[in-house]
Amino acid sequence: MMHINLFLFGCGHHNAAWRHPDSQVERLGDIRYYEEMAQLAERGKLDAVFFADGHATNNITDGPRWFLEPVTMLTAISRATRHIGLVSTISSTFFTPFHAARLMASLDHISGGRAGWNVVTSMFDVEARNHGYEAMPGHAERYARAEEFIQAVLQLWDSWDDGALLNDRAGDYVDESRVRQINHRGKHFLVDGPLTVPRPPQGHPVLFQAGASEHGRALAAKHAEAIYAVAYDLPSAQAYYRDVKARVKAAGRQVDVPILPGLVTFIGSTEAEARAKQRALDELLPAETSLRQLQLFIDQDCMGWELDAPVPPLPPLEAFTGPKGRYATVLRIIETERPTVRQLLGRLAAGGGHCTMVGTPEQVADQMEHWFRNGGADGFNLMPPVQPDSVQDFVDHVIPILQRRGLFREDYEHTTLRGHLGLARPGRQ
Amino acid sequence: MMHINLFLFGCGHHNAAWRHPDSQVERLGDIRYYEEMAQLAERGKLDAVFFADGHATNNITDGPRWFLEPVTMLTAISRATRHIGLVSTISSTFFTPFHAARLMASLDHISGGRAGWNVVTSMFDVEARNHGYEAMPGHAERYARAEEFIQAVLQLWDSWDDGALLNDRAGDYVDESRVRQINHRGKHFLVDGPLTVPRPPQGHPVLFQAGASEHGRALAAKHAEAIYAVAYDLPSAQAYYRDVKARVKAAGRQVDVPILPGLVTFIGSTEAEARAKQRALDELLPAETSLRQLQLFIDQDCMGWELDAPVPPLPPLEAFTGPKGRYATVLRIIETERPTVRQLLGRLAAGGGHCTMVGTPEQVADQMEHWFRNGGADGFNLMPPVQPDSVQDFVDHVIPILQRRGLFREDYEHTTLRGHLGLARPGRQ
């Protein structure tokens, strides 16, 4: 069975989504906008809704990026839904482990065991300068901190045993022998514990991770219980899938970690209709905005580039110090398609180089099945180019096909995110 | 008109509340427990629900203190209510200003302008050791940090003007001239801004503060928009009220800052019934627990004290380095009543020395009116000794009397917490 999350973002993942006449850009501060989309995803029996997070506004004239804070959004969504998982990104660079453990444990209790934590290390200096740093710590330093952060969070969740709460009115509230300090003293953190929140319903909220770099893959192999991957095409998906599954096994873990590449879909009743939807959106895209976005991805001065000329040569992957996955995708597109600058911008405008599938519901279901059956994916992190239209197209037309083929659940069989993902509830470690 | 908040805490503010046969101690992880009490408070047209916060478990065998994290709780409550304000405590010692500003702004958007922030500096070393400190910074240092913290938070809320969002599909998403960096570089914080969340519906979520110390009063005079006070009796309430109102005026502020002392009520259809309720709860109290609580308040080794002997002499207020307000109350009880240790424990068991009113609904309404008409209070922060029973008694029997006397609103006239409290919406400062 596939696992499918809905990754909600602004008005949609296409940079021009908010410019669409039907966009709900006026509702980005309205929690019901997000609740309605989560309800739609729940109607489609999806595994989870997924939120990224950022700690700075970049290029805000170009379109919405962040608005509401993700843990508060997901808490509200938890009260408007019954089954769907709730995955929030929390940065290991800007929080303390106690804050992260506490927020996630609280969401897990409030939602009855539906919380997931997508751990990221963050990347931009503009974000760092909102949280006390003059600049971001280096890549290796961030990942060393993330490793220690995760260990402290897991220990905090384990600081209360199941059954620690006695509620014995004539005796003790808690069995003290089942609650303990963690006394963490590491290079980056000092945390005594125990957590103020008793053990979460899932034991541990599900740990998601995304990371294409060597450090990112190493962290995923050791800790991730589900992975949000970036793969432009099936060969790159397969290479990543093989590598990370092997690393998980090499780390001695028995768990089958679902790998879920990001997926942008344009769906129409004919292929031509789907392509027209995509083109209509691309045409709403101001060239300057896209060039600035590209600049952010590849760390080159692109603003003077000729739109209809071939993309100039770029430094090799090894020389690039930003997020490797996206940069590798750009190099791959250039290598395999020799695009003009304008063509490259089109490719990147929706989902920043994640896989794009365009066609009828059957065609999209076919491609998804092809990836699923050929070692490219255990499912997908859906990145709707326009919300809620693309979500609706997917839920109403692709999900029923996947269900008929026996590739996706007909209904929820579990009440927790761990249940949906086929992950066991961890004991104390 | 009075302002009345409901301060929810565990199973109630009486240390033995959870031991009561009717207590809902088994539901402390169930968000509906809190939603139901907030709905009850909203039925009584109360101004707000109010949550304290702590970052460590103390003496957990004795009874519940913390469970769910307050901002997530209040977010859920916001979706189960329509009018009532939502006040969360957030520590200026353990968060960054960006986190605090973002969480509160998000809650304010989600709730349609009902968020309040009770700023505290926190106090216990066991809390500090969950967030990277070996011990708490000193009192003066914490308040200096709080002052800088508040300034940064206010600037972050002001970093987006009203009307900054253009949502112009053919042009810009945002009017860049109405969004700005704050470039804060202080002794404790570095924050560039702008916030990721556009200006909150209330402009600024309402700033609550509580603090009896010199530093606390100075901070309140400068920044507080509503004050949660501790006053054991009317003379101490009047002294605090006069002093803080004068300080607010001296600070050059035009605003009338509501002062709301904590209030514990035991209500019965006769005075004898009310006293029996109080006694029944006191009798559930294990002496050792109460002595340990007292030890925390007065920083003396109390465990060997004889229960039926007079309270031993205590050091003067000036020599005490912990929270001054509670200590002053203990000194005042000892001075005016010469109690035995057991009698003192009884006084402190519910609400830790806040005012307690016991009697029929008319008697309690009379005392509240007396405080209100005689310069002791602009309203109260209700501290129900047992939840939900004490809340129900108050909402069903005291509120209607206050309404008949024209002392409390018959219905909500506003949609925001600022509206309920009679506070103007601030412009950019």
Proportion in β-strands of chain A = 5-15%
How many helix segments of chain A? 14
Oligomer status = homodimer
Main-sheet strand order of chain A equals 1-2-3-4-7-8-9-11
Alpha-carbon distance between the two ends of chain A:
29 Å
CATH homology group of chain A: Luciferase-like domain
What percentage of residues of chain A falls in helices of 4 or more residues? Answer: 25-40%
Number-wise, the strands of chain A total 11
* CA gyration radius of chain A, whole angstroms: 22 Å
Along the chain, the helix and strand elements of chain A come as EHEHEHEHHEEEHEHEHHHHEHEHH
Indicate the structural class of chain A.
Answer: alpha/beta
Q: Would you identify the CATH architecture of chain A?
A: Alpha-Beta Barrel
Mean pLDDT of chain A: 94
Q: What is the CATH T-level topology of chain A?
A: TIM Barrel
Task: Please tell me what the overall shape of chain A is.
Answer: globular
Biggest interface found: A-B, 69 and 69 residues
CATH class division of chain A:
Alpha Beta
Uncertain parts of chain A: none
